[in-house]
Amino acid sequence: MPYAHINRNALQFPGGPSADFNLFLRKLDSLVVSGRGDVRILHIGGSHVQGGMWTNSFRKNLMSLRYGMDGGRGLVFPYAAAGTNTPVGYQTSYTGTWTTSRCLKPDTVMGVSGMTVSTADTSATVSFDLVPEERKQWDLRFTVRSIDVLGYGDLEPIIIAGKDTLRGRKLDERWRFDLPYYVDYLRIGFLGFPGRFTLKGVYLDNPGNGLTVSEAGVNGAATSSFLKCEDFTRDLQLIKPDLVIFSIGINDLQGSDFDSRRFISNYGKLIQMVRRANPHCAFLFTSCNDSWKNGRSNPFGARAAKAFEEIAAGCDGAYWDLYDIMGGAGSMDAWVNANLARTDRIHFTPDGYTILGNLLFNALMDTYTASVR
Q: Where are the beta strands (DSSP E) in the chain?
């Protein structure tokens, strides 16, 4: 590829061999080879992740390793009710009046989704359609039977299924619904008016063996943004990720300077928040892409890449140096010229994000195959 250094596409382990990452690889191997196990991956970031194309490409590749690995769609959020874009692969809609808050400037308690929507409207509903719009034959299609509604308030969430109203069980700050059948569409309403409910997200699961790849992306979010999510760890205790892929950073580079010490410190706090939910969670850090700032290549890109390497070394995590793989400073021009990046020279096109997912998958598979030889 003239726009990428494919020979450098590899996961690095700057802290040396990682016991937690090897544990994740063994669980993945058990699922791929024998169909046994429940493997969960969570991808966290800003707009690169909220758009969903990068994660979806990575997800498709992983799902192709074995037929029938559907472990559920995982974490979803009613982005339409929040007035913002929904990740590719599912659709959301709503009725009634909702207010929203994001982790950039939160005014509600929020969790790992980095957003909330709240309502006191008697007609309010949110809906999730797991069949992608303009679905193609090779697109993933998910069906789920176990649903957790994450949130808090005076109202009781319910599942509206045709003429049926299904009530769940309250467990801490979530409501669990175990459906008698599999669904690819669900609608959530509320009982108990007057009152209010703040929704932090919904987790869609298939009980038993399978692979789940979720994304939690918030447009404009920096490392400090997710640190404002008071229920971050609480929600992760439900998701129980075996691997967290951190792709937060591009928005940390938009100021007049880049404080690498603060960046590393913020990531250290995020790592601890994850480890409180799963002490043996594996970590994979993706460095920031080359981008433009004030009409030229962002001068902080290389410093951020070094900071990511230090972060990975500090927690025995894996490091994927996207900045170097795509060509380093100024390389975004080549991606724009190949129609793989947008003219804002920050974001990628759908084809570009698909390539990022393919490259990340290939790097992971090289590590995986080496571990099982």
A: 38-45, 74-76, 91-95, 99-102, 115-119, 125-129, 144-153, 156-161, 164-167, 169-171, 174-183, 185-191, 197-205, 210-217, 243-247, 282-286, 292-293, 296-297, 318-320
Sign of CA dihedral 44, 150, 130, 282: positive
Angle at 169 between CA 163 and CA 171, to 5 degrees: 145
pLDDT tens-place string over residues 199-222: 999 999 998 889 999 999 999 999
pLDDT in tens, 87-120: 999 999 999 999 999 999 999 999 999 999 999 9
DSSP 97: -
Q: What is the pTM of this model?
A: 0.96
CA distance 249 to 246: 9
Give Cα separations from 172 to 84, 108, 113, 235 (angstroms). 28, 17, 17, 11
Burial 236-268 (b: 16+ CB within 10 A, else e): bebbebbbbbbbbbbbbbeeeebebeebbebbe
**Domains of the chain, first to last:** 1-71+208-373 (3.40.50.1110), 75-207 (2.60.120)
**Distance set, CA 199 to CA 168, 202, 216 (Å):** 15, 8, 15
